[in-house]
Structure formats: C-alpha cells, structure tokens
Design goal:
CATH architecture of chain B: Alpha-Beta Barrel
Largest sheet of chain A: 7 strands, antiparallel
Number of helices of chain A: 7
Shape of chain A: globular
Strand order of the largest sheet of chain B: 3-16-15-10-9-8-7-4
Radius of gyration of chain B: 18 Å
Largest interface: A-B, 53 and 46 residues
Number of strands of chain A: 16
CATH architecture of the largest domain in chain A: 3-Layer(aba) Sandwich
Distance between the termini of chain A: 40 Å
Strand order of the largest sheet of chain A: 4-3-7-1-2-6-5
Oligomer: heterodimer
Structural class of chain B: alpha/beta
CATH class of chain B: Alpha Beta
CATH topology of the largest domain in chain A: Rossmann fold
CATH superfamily of the largest domain in chain A: Nucleotide-binding domain of ferredoxin-NADP reductase (FNR) module
Order of helices and strands of chain B: EEEHHEEEHEHEHEHEEEEEHEHEHHH
Number of strands of chain B: 16
CATH topology of chain B: TIM Barrel
Strand content of chain A: 25-35%
Strand content of chain B: 15-25%
Number of helices of chain B: 11
CATH superfamily of chain B: Aldolase class I
CATH class of the largest domain in chain A: Alpha Beta
Chain lengths: 294, 298
C-alpha cells in the first residue's frame, strides 16, 4: 500500500494530509494565561501551512466517562517546526467542554491521535491583494492560534506584518509568547492589557489611512462576532481580507457535511474542505448559528 | 460469512466492508488526502451520498450535535442534483477501484423512475440504493414506513433496470421486517439497514439543530442495529447490508452473525478516515473456529 507523499500540496496550496488517523506523542503541555499550549511530535506528518487544522483526540479517555467526547475536535495549528524525529505541532486550547478538557489534561508522553493537516490555508498576501505592502493580523481569544504561524511565516519571508490581539479578560487570554518579536498591539474588554475595548477598534484606526485599501491585507481569526466586525469593517474600507472561520465538524475532510457555512448569494460551503480560511467577500456574515466553540 | 471476497446481490466484492451512504465523500477526501484515497480505498464498494432529481443546498446550520457515544446529524441531503452528479461527480468516482452504488431519493414514483433510469444507464454504476425515508407527495406517507408503499414503489421501478436495487430501511418503524418483506415482494435485490434514529437534541431550552430534528448514529445505536438486522434476516431471503455503530472487527462480525451479507461503516469513518481498513483487518483476525471453541468452554 502506498503512503501519501510527505508534504505534497493540493491545487490551492494546501498541504495534503496522510490518509488516516495517526498517533503523535505529547512533548509539552504548558499553561499560558487562561489557555493551554499543547505540543506534540508528529513522526509521520508533513509540515502544515498556516491556517490549516488538525482533528485531535486523546488516545485514551476519549468516549470514556460519560461517553463524551465522542467526536474528534478541530484545532488550527499555532506553530510547526520540522526536526529529525518529526514535526513539532503546537495547538492552543481553552478548557471549555469535554473535548478541550481531555486535551488540556494530556501530559508529556501521552498519545494524541490526529488527522491532518486539513483545509485551505491562508493565501500569500499578494494573492489576496496584488498591491499589498503590509499584513495586519487580527486575532480574538484563542483565534490567535493560526495567526501565530502565519506571522512567523510572513516574518521569515520579510513581509511587513503587524498583529492586533484582543481578549475578553485576563482569565480568557494567553498565548502571547507565540508572538515574540512581533509588532503587537493588544486590546482587552476589561482593560487588563492594552486598549480597553475591542480589537476591531484598533483595526479601525489602522485602516483609516487613504491608502489602506490599496496596500493592506487583513488576516483574522476569532469568535464569530469579532470576525463579523472585521468583515464589515474591511468591506466598508474596501480592504482585502481572509477570515479563518470555525464550525463544529465531525470529520474534518468533507465526509459529514456538518460544517455548513452560508455563502453570499445562497448555498453553503463546507468549512473543512472549502475553508477554514475564506475570502471575506465570499460570505455575507460571519455570524452563524452554532458557530464558535462551546 | 467470511471476511474474504464476497458477492452481494450479484456484485463481486473483495471483502465485506462497504461505506454507509452519506458518510464518506470520496471526492472531498481526495482534496484532503490526495491520490492515497484511491490507492488505499478502504471499502469494497462505494455508496454515494443520496442524490435527488434537483439540486439541494441542505439544511441550515447547526447540523451536528454530539451525544454520549453517538452524534446527531441534520444535513438535509445537499447534492448537485441528478444532472450535476451524473456529469461531474460520477466520472470522478469512476476512478475508485471498487463497484459504485448510487443512492437516490425522490418524492414520487414518477420522479424515482426518472432517477433510476438515468443512473442505471451509466456503465459506471453497479447498483442503485433507494433512500425511501421521504414522503410520497401523492399519499403524504413516508414510503419506507409503509410496507405497501415500499412494495408499490419497487414494482414501479423493478422493470426499469437490470441493475440491483437495494432498499435502505429506516429504523423508525414498529416492524422493519414488514417493510423489508414489502421491498422483497416488490422485487428488491437487497436491503440495507439501519438508517439513523430520529432524534431531537435540545440546548438551552430550544432545539439545537437548524432543522429541529436529525438522526442519531454511532456506537450507541449498535444494539438496535443488531436486533433489526436479525429481525429482517428472519423475514426475507434477499441479502442484507448491515450497519449501525460498527467500530471494530468484532462489531462487524456480530452483524454478519445475525444475518448481514456485508457490513457498512459510517460514523466511525468520521473519527478516522481509515477506520474501515482497521475494522477489516480486525475482522480477518477473528478466527471463527477459535471463537466457537472459546465459547464452548464457558
């Protein structure tokens, strides 16, 4: 039987996943503010692209106890580095339900079952806006995860980037160490860090300049209400943007049709194979019943 | 029934593990995993997602809910319609190294006839599965809930094709065996069961799913499937594709033991796209002789 070629890419630049679920081993689990940074060594997987995600499940305890979690959970990859023994993958978790609770409890050496990398990654800035001179990364809560890897990639290519991160309060914040050496501005609803208010307030100021529409490209990930504010703002200012969306999904590879996202003009896309990164112009609103984590 | 090559209503299969309709989109899977999906296809036949005469967008989200050892889905049969499927999807599915079974649904015998004729005319198609969990616009009754409606539909469709017709049975009836007997009397070549169990998850005092209700699947329904396959096997002589919560080789073995000819894997593929391959390996590892002698020692 032939194994999938490592690092093979699909038509839209996505890195293809090896077929089937495989075992990785947790190498670090560290608290970061109110979040958990979970790092696993994936011995057989390719290096993912920023914006792609993995379906995760703990090797033991999944479906145990009260019978939940049953389905794997989708997580954007926040950091990925290739080494001699495999690819180190870092995910950002917030313990909010039975799935994230099991994952947040994993210790070094525990098995983490994963399928991925999956989905459409962020596009290069000049594919989003041919005149792009700088990228603005806008993250809300644990939505900072895919932006952390994107920021690293942009910086490595020498493309100017600034990051704006917003949090609800101190208990619902963290992951800032993933943005080291970055031009970073913070907002928090409770005022514990940076601007007191929304991260979209910071974005609005940044998009005020006359040439913003011609030279900016916005990449955003966060809760639905924040993404909708980003989408509306970018539409108003004529700024090109890509949004990394979230939806409950059972499979992550187009089989279950659960992650339906309404398209502008009617019909639905499947976020797992047509997203999770979407052109902001492709949707009418980022507010969808059932979207966001719970 | 062995875990080796088998024949299912005249279709030669390399092994008895197929997929349940609507639980594996081979075209989308190829976008995620590449040609490995074709080279290492885990099923011995491919059952398509249900197609309808006209395109359907599907139900509004949310479409999924997790239950202990189960999930509820309310997808709403999104599909490109017969024309889109036959022109775009079927040629792509012909790349798969296994026989194709196309699932179809319509709301009247006339519409069903058109679908069956159009699908049957294509050489790529080995068999047709009839999704009868829909109302007949003329009677208002769910076809698959009525033995007489099912029999009448099969009598109308049987003369239209020489290809095997498989009736997908709903578990949401008092006696699935009666509906199966109706299907057999009308000329069906096989039946497949169980479909999902009707379910209504609630969240914060309201139905969670966009469409209000959906269908329960996963390990939680396995014992229901075993009972219903057993009942149907006692009532009909046509072969059965058994399914419902299969997660391991021994689960597949159980369905074969109660009368299924082949076993379909559904929800397990959501958790692991290669679940069916593992289930087959485990099934082959079960030695019936050793298993029966172990039982006699109890």
């Amino acid at each position: 039987m032939a194994a999938s070629a490592q690092g093979e890419t699909g038509a839209d630049g996505r890195v293809l996943a090896p077929l089937g679920r495989r075992r990785s081993a947790v190498v670090a689990n560290s608290p970061s503010g109110g979040y958990t940074l979970l790092t696993a060594l994936d011995p057989d997987g390719p290096l993912p692209k920023a914006g792609q995600f993995y379906m995760l499940a703990a090797e033991h305890g999944w479906g145990g106890g009260g019978g939940r979690p049953f389905l794997p959970r989708a997580f954007s990859v926040a950091d990925a580095t290739a080494g001699e023994t495999g690819v180190r993958l870092t995910f950002v978790l917030e313990d909010v339900g039975p799935g994230t609770h099991e994952l947040a409890g994993l210790a070094e050496g525990d098995g983490l079952l994963l399928t991925g990398p999956l989905g459409r990654p962020f596009s290069p800035p000049r594919d989003v806006n041919p005149g792009a001179a700088g990228a603005i990364l806008v993250g809300g809560g644990i939505g900072l995860a895919p932006l952390a890897l994107l920021r690293r990639d942009l910086a490595a290519r020498g493309f100017p980037e600034r990051s704006l991160l917003g949090f609800r309060d101190e208990a619902h914040s963290g992951g800032l160490e993933l943005f080291r050496c970055s031009e970073l501005r913070l907002a928090s609803e409770d005022g514990h860090a940076g601007h007191r208010g929304y991260v979209t307030d910071l974005l609005a100021v940044m998009l005020e300049g006359d040439d913003a529409a011609a030279t900016a490209v916005v990449y955003a990930c966060g809760p639905p209400a924040m993404l909708e504010a980003v989408r509306a703002l970018c539409e108003e200012c004529g700024v090109a943007a890509e949004l990394a969306l979230e939806s409950p999904m059972a499979c992550g590879y187009g089989a279950c049709f659960g992650c339906a996202m309404p398209l502008r003009g009617g019909g639905y896309m499947r976020l797992c194979v047509d997203g999770p990164v979407v052109d902001a112009g492709a949707i009418e609103t980022a507010l969808v019943e059932g979207a966001g984590h719970r | 029934m062995s875990a080796g090559p088998t024949s299912f209503c005249g279709i030669e299969l390399a092994h008895p593990i197929i997929n349940a309709s609507g639980t594996f989109d081979a075209i989308a899977a190829r976008r995620a995993f590449g040609d490995a999906v074709v080279e290492r296809f885990p099923f011995s036949a491919y059952v398509s997602k249900t197609i309808t005469p006209a395109p359907r967008a599907g139900n509004p989200p949310p479409r999924l809910w997790e239950e202990p050892a189960a999930m509820v889905n309310s997808i709403g049969l999104p599909n490109k319609g017969a024309e889109g499927f036959l022109s775009t999807d079927l040629p792509a599915l012909a790349d798969l190294p296994v026989p194709l079974i196309v699932s179809v649904m319509a709301t009247s015998a006339e519409e069903f006839s058109g679908l069956v004729e159009a699908v049957s005319a294509r050489d790529e198609v080995a068999a047709i599965e009839l999704n009868v969990s829909c109302p007949n616009v003329h009677s208002g009754l769910i076809v698959g809930e009525q033995p007489s409606e099912t029999e009448a539909l099969l009598e109308a469709l049987r003369p239209l094709t020489a290809k095997p017709l498989i009736v997908k049975l709903t578990p949401n009836v008092a006696a699935p065996a009666s509906v199966a007997a109706g299907a057999e009397a009308g000329g069906a070549d096989a039946v497949s069961l169980i479909n999902t169990l009707k379910a209504r998850p609630m969240f914060a005092g309201k139905p969670w799913l966009g469409a209000g209700s959906g269908g329960l699947s996963g390990p939680a329904v396995r014992a229901v499937a075993l009972q219903q396959v057993s009942d149907v096997a006692a009532a009909v002589s046509i072969p059965i594709a058994g399914m419902g919560g299969v997660e391991s080789g021994s689960h597949a073995r159980d369905l074969l033991d109660v009368g299924a000819e082949v076993v379909a894997v559904g929800t397990a593929s959501f958790r692991d796209p290669l679940a069916a391959e593992r289930i087959l390996i485990e099934l082959r590892g079960l030695d019936p002789v050793a298993a029966s002698s172990a039982t006699s020692e109890l």
